[in-house]
Amino acid sequence: MRKPVTTAAVLVGLGIGVAIGPSLGAAALWSGVAIAVLGVALLLVGRRTPDLVGDGPADRDEDAGVADDATSTDTTAAAPRRRNRPRPGLGGLGTRVEQILKLAEEQANDHRAEARRESEAIVTAARREAEAILNRAHQQAARTTGNRRDPSPVPPTRAASPNAWSGVTIDCLDPERVARFWSALLGRAPGSSPEGWVYLGERGEPQPRLVFQPVSERQTGKVRIHLDVSVDDIDEAMTAVVNLGGRSTGERHDYEEGVVVVMTDPEDHEFCLVQYYG
User: Fold this and answer.
1) How many other β-carbons are positioned within 10 Å of the β-carbon of residue 33?
2) DSSP states of 109-139
3) Angle formed by the axes of helices 26-46 and 3-24, nearest 10°
4) Of 77, 105, 120, 156, which has fewest CB within 10 angstroms of its CB?
5) Could you tell me the pTM of the whole model?
6) Residues in CB range of 35: below 8 A, 6 or more apart
7) Is the model's pLDDT at 46 over the cut of 70?
8) Which residues lie below 8 Å from residue 198, measured CB to CB, with a gap of 6+?
9) Could you say which DSSP state residue 162 is in?
10) Residue 249 pLDDT
11) What is the C-alpha separation between 186 and 177, in angstroms, rounded?
12) How far is CA 96 from the centre of its chain?
């Protein structure tokens, strides 16, 4: 039974007892009290368990469709109907857990990246410190021994002196003839030359320039400065010299590093053909 209906029954019973009690006597008064007690009993019996444990107005109210029904005037025949409310479940718990795990994974990745950067910085700093220690040790060793130690190979550099080897000059009765011989033997083209002189090559080239200057007297005696010409095959080189107008002196020297044969150009300027081993 609904609470409003029950309350109304109680009030009706009390009202009847109060209204007719003075005129009908004590018996009528007790009849009104009996009706009120009956209303209270119906109140207690008509309440259902869900109505006693409900947590709000929604648990105590009837469905709106039942209240508007045409049979709502008959309070004794109406049956309460409980609204089916969805109970809280675990449907959204999985999504929440996935979000938490994803956030934790992102934070772990950030921590790993930060740790990697810190380790690389530490290694770089340690490498620099080690290099600095080695450099200080080398400097100290150089001061102790008097020799500076440099582990890296140093390529040969040109001396700071203003002097440089720029050419070789050969005295000739016929500079053009001798120059043609040397040009063919060494494969060097004539350069710009003053009148009567012949230059092979230009000043500033990697190889010294050969200068053939005219003189009036023939060479007498041994020349104390001569040229060495490196060849791949000593026999073929000797044949080429003879074909160009030179000759062999017959002098030959065999050394551990190679063989040397003394030749002359057309004006008997001595030079050496050298074949190195290895």
Assistant:
1) 15
2) HHHHHHHHHHHHHHHHHHHHHHHHHHHHHHH
3) 170
4) 156
5) 0.40
6) 9, 12, 13, 14, 16, 17
7) no
8) 175, 176, 178, 179, 190, 211, 212
9) S
10) 94
11) 15
12) 36
23 alpha carbon, distance to own chain's centre: 108
Give the tens place of pLDDT for each residue, 191-229: 988 999 999 998 888 889 999 999 988 877 777 778 999
The reported pLDDT for the residue numbered 105 is 84
Burial zone of 61 (CB within 10 Å; 0-12 exposed, 13-18 middle, 19+ buried): middle
Q: Which two tokens stand for residue 71?
A: 């049979």
Amino acid at 76: T
In eight-state DSSP terms, residue 269 is -
Among 239, 211, 230, residue whose Cα is nearest residue 271: 230
Token pair for residue 217?
Answer: 């007297």
Residue of 72, 11, 20, 75 lying closest to 40 (CA atoms): 11
AA letter at 6? T
3-state helix, strand, coil in the chain (%, to 5): 50, 15, 35
